[in-house]
Amino acid sequence: MAALPYTIVVGLEVHVQLLTESKLFCGCSTKFGAPPNTQTCPVCIGMPGVLPVMNAKAFALALKAAAALNCHIATFTKWDRKNYYYPDLPKGYQISQYDLPLCRDGWLDVPSEDEAEDRRIRIIRVHLEEDAGKSLHDEKAGRADSRIDLNRAGTPLLEIVTYPDIRSPAEAKTFLQELKLLLNYLEVSDCNMQEGSLRVDANINLHIPTPQGIAATPIVEVKNMNSFRAVEKALAYEAERQWGVFQETGRKLGEVPKQTRGWDEHAEVTRPQRSKEESSDYRYFPEPDLVPVTVTPEEIERVQASLGELPADLRRRLRRDYGLNAYDADVLVNQGRSTVHYFLRLADVCGDGKAAANWIQQDVLRVVHERQISITDFPIPPDTLGEVIRMVRGGRLDTPKGRQVFAHLLQHGGRPQEAVDALGFKDVDDAEVQALCRELVDANPKVVAEVRSGKEKALGSLVGQAKKRNPHVNPARVKEICLELIARM
Amino acid sequence: MESFWELTARELSDKLRRGECSAVEVARACLDRIAAEDATVRAFLSVEPDWALSQAEEVDRRRRAGESLGPLAGVPVAVKDNLCVQGRVTSCASRMLAHFRSPYDATVVDRLLKAGAIIVGKTNLDEFAMGGSTETSAFQFTRNPWDVERIPGGSSGGAAACVAARMVPLSVGSDTGGSIRQPAALCGISGLKPTYGRVSRFGLVAFASSLDQIGPLAQSAEDCALLLEVLAGHDPRDATSLDRPVPRYASELEGAIKGLRIGWVPEHFTEGLDGEVGEAVREALRIYEDLGAELVEVASPHARYAVAAYYIIAPSEASSNLARYDGVHYGYRTDEKAMLADLEEERRLLRESGDEAALEEIDSALVRLYRRSRAGGFGAEVKRRIMLGTYALSAGYYDAYYLKALKVRRLIRQDYDRAFSQVDVIAGPVTPSPAFRLGEKTSDPLAMYLFDLYTVGANLAGLPAMAIPCGFSREGLPIGLHLQAPALEEVRLLRAAHALQRNTDWHRRRPGSHIAARSELRG
To answer: Where is average pLDDT lowest: A139-143, B109-113, B120-124, B433-437?
Structure first.
């Protein structure tokens, strides 16, 4: 990456929807996609006289996420009301956490762009809150006709706020991918941006070295980014825009009020949003309808112990114990926990991590993607595939035959040997191959000479002849033996 | 033969159980009495004759069928109109909810119905329970049955007046700063505010969530006990409700007063207290002493800040609790066509004058919808409290007001803790004076707020407290005695109250009939 005349400084505010069956303070379903206002009750639509009751599952999931984000978990946390008026907020306040959040001061390590050390992005705080409903604006025919869907009102959200530790638009994207992966692993959230189960706002400015020292540009909050790619693009756009404005005006942080800009997906620009709507005083105060939640140090320990291996640990283990390179480890871990489990079993059975990784990436995942199934529904168990790989590694099958066995197993199931038999592949005794090779080497002095002069490709003709004589020989084995013989001549 | 309306809930319940009368007969008598008395007293915002009779028929049917019946089977009860009853209007005496029908039953309503009580109607209150005279009701003044030119107290004014006028034996109210005890005292009946969390608030339209508590109003401590037993108990739908066993209050009333340590606070008897009230309360204390109680002076050094703290905390919570009434989802909404027409007109004028900046800044239709709906839906007192609370919670003022008030609240709680390490109950006046005249304090909100001086402490500390009759003024107005006890000591309160009522007959006195008085009234 070409050096920029400035440093980009980004902090993210991420909202993820928790994978609970029911809402944060009532029993309504949180399922996505139901017809508007069918998943509501007096509590989540804010009828007079209703009271919230905390969903213990949501709290447990939040604790899990907090522990995985290396946060300091509060033993005493309370709820607060954030007061503001909006039609999709039926109570006129949102139940959130203000001064005593669930946890603070954590971090998430993300793989860095240049493959050296991971980058540590610090987390300021993580807290639980309820979601608002959705306003559906129909601006057809020139009249603003707004409708409100309260299905989402009261859905549990985890708000995760980072320090401004992110240094590039790409890193912002990587952070989000890593966060999503982590929360997927924990089964805390599916982080689906299309369904709105992950939403992100970014604060961005530039630090520009000048003869007078570092100049910081005014911080801009960017909203309305609907995909990880959009985050990357919006931040890249915004950095360039701020650089341009700075060169033009020289305006620095503190000289203008903080601005909120929205990402316009189609025009690929950020546009200022109305400043009037953001100058709110939320009048936070403790939610009197809920009791504070206390968490014991033992509970925190239990949660921490229950996390299991997280993506970063798994990547490290795949590299260290299975000899994978960073790229392969990444691909497998990013597929999710069940793929990693498949890999671990496969590698243990076949005894070759690299081969197992290749088979998964080239064969298993191809089928999984084609059939749009989860790897847990993949028809060939890792033990079976491991045996196939062992046959290939041991020279009993060449790779194309291995693939045929794979395809056979995929279609018919059964044991690898059954597939080998059904496909008519016969084992050839190694001594037989040795004899055949000797014969061929003796009979083809021209080829031998070519090989010796460095043209290893010439061996192809020996392999071809061998296969003609015995179609069951493993070409790789033939190649190997012939090379050995020629070397000894 | 005695009329049904003269009977207490206990007496009625016994008669019903013995089969000496039917629930339908009782309900009819009750409805007749309401029809006669309430034209003057105006305690009810709605009466439900058909529903009441069908509930009564059901009780009679079940009794005939030999099915098990609840403890209040066939006993009529009135419910304050800030408690939700499914399918029926719950107006909170506000234009905002004038036509609002609740889609669900409050937990206490559910419990009443399960106990076999016959809900006959819903009683008037100060709008959203904000007030001490029931004069802030958007719909009607309720009159004190002892003197119809006077207020019944508030905010549960209707709840107290309907019992005082013997329209129903039992009534359910809510108490945020004295709203059960003060009208009970001014109407000469008994009323109990339970420990915070003792009775579920689910379905009580919130005024100030950390202070609100539902409780009984009745002719006697015994009837209060009977009703409290039905109302109290843990509710999984209210996170602040206490998961503690409910005593059999009505069976725990008997108990010697000998040795009971009754605390009294000297400041309660100094300036500001009406002489007749002071004398009646002191007389009640003397009776307790005669019964063997020991009077102990206790200090309440922070009591004088209680009203100030209360009028920060309660409005702060109210400002948030009442935010949901915005004209968008339910309740009163301003005339949108008129609102949009005005907006267009304003825009047109600005366009014509070329004032682009003002045109840009003009409030949106949504903001106007909120503003106008709330301006039109709420009355002056509710608006005053929303503004007070909004101010107290605002950035820059929060620490000086809200946070400071919370600190005072804690100090008051500590005062109580110290006092209750020395005494079993604290006794004193409920109000500084007997009932005042309608309109007397409406233009002086501060005087109205100061009327809560003796009652708000129990709400701030979350303690149980009771008002019972202890005498009458020379003008014939009831005077109340205030009893307060440590958390969850309702039994102690009820015993003390019951002991006084066994030795006095103030609670048996009742005002004259109002059937004849109707024509003389104005308004």
So the answer is: A139-143
This prediction has a pTM of 0.90
Cβ pair A49:B390 closer than 8 A: no
CA dihedral of B462, A43, B405, B397, whole degrees rounded to 10? 180
Write out pLDDT tens, residues A285-330.
Answer: 999 999 999 999 999 999 999 998 999 999 999 999 999 998 999 9
What was the pLDDT predicted at A421? Answer: 87
CB-CB under 8 Å, A49 with B90: yes
Q: Which of A43, A51, A282 to mutate to test the interface with B (most CBs of B within 10 A)?
A: A51
Kindly indicate the confidence band of residue A267, based on its pLDDT and cuts at 50, 70 and 90.
Answer: very high
Is there a domain that residue B406 lies in?
no
Q: What is the pLDDT of residues B413-432, one digit of tens each?
A: 999 999 999 999 999 999 99
Percent above pLDDT 90 for chain A: 70
Under 8 Å between Cβ of B485 and B193: no
Q: How many structural domains are present in chain B?
A: 2
pLDDT, mean of residues A424-450? 84
Q: Which residues contact A369 (CB under 8 A, 6 or more apart)?
A: none
Question: Which residue does chain B place closest to A87, by CA atoms?
Answer: B328
For B156, the domain range is 4-243+255-266+423-508
Q: Which of B22, B91, B102, B155 is catalytic?
A: B155
| B363, B468: one domain | no
Residue A137 in this model has a pLDDT that exceeds 90: no
Delineate the domains of chain A, giving CATH numbers in brackets. 7-299 (no CATH), 309-422 (no CATH), 430-487 (1.10.10)
| Residue B354 shares a structural domain with residue B462 | no
What is the predicted pLDDT for the residue at B516?
Answer: 52
Which entry of B179, B200, B220, B473 is annotated as an active-site residue? B179
Residue B179 annotated as catalytic: yes
Q: Tokens 């039917």 sit at which residue?
A: B22
* Single-letter amino acid, residue A94: Q
pLDDT at A453: 85
B153 and B70 in a common domain = yes
Phi, psi of A16, rounded to the nearest 5 degrees: -120, 140
| Domain end marker among B341, B375, B409 | B375
Over the stretch A96-106, which tens digit does the pLDDT of each residue have?
999 999 999 99
In A80-119, the residues whose Cβ lies within 8 Å of chain B are 81, 83, 85, 87, 90-93
CB contact under 8 A, B201 and A51: yes
Whether A92 and B323 lie within 8 Å, measured CB to CB: yes
The fraction of chain A above a pLDDT of 70, given in percent, is 96
Best CA proximity match to B103, nearest among B114, B116, B89, B119:
B89
Residue B354 lies in a domain: yes
Domain assignment present for residue B418? The answer is no
Please check whether residue B363 lies inside any domain of the structure: yes
CB within 8 Å of chain B, chain A residues 114-153: 144, 148
Whole-angstrom Cα distance, residue A129 to residue A159?
7
Closest CA–CA distance from residue B394 to any residue of chain A (Å): 5
Measured CA to CA in angstroms, residue B254 lies from A32, A334, B241 at distances of 59, 72, 28
SS3 call for B331: coil
Cβ of B204 within 8 Å of Cβ of A92? The answer is: no
Burial class (CB in 10 A: 0-12, 13-18, 19+), A404: middle
Distance from CA of A356 to the nearest CA of B (A): 53
Write the DSSP string, A390-408.
HHHHTTSS-HHHHHHHHHH
Residue A343 has pLDDT above 80, yes or no: yes
Cβ contact (<8 Å) for A49 and B103? no
Contacts B370 to A, Cβ<8 Å = 85
Mean pLDDT, rounded, of chain A: 91
Q: Is B441 a catalytic residue?
A: no
Residues B458 and B358 in one domain: no
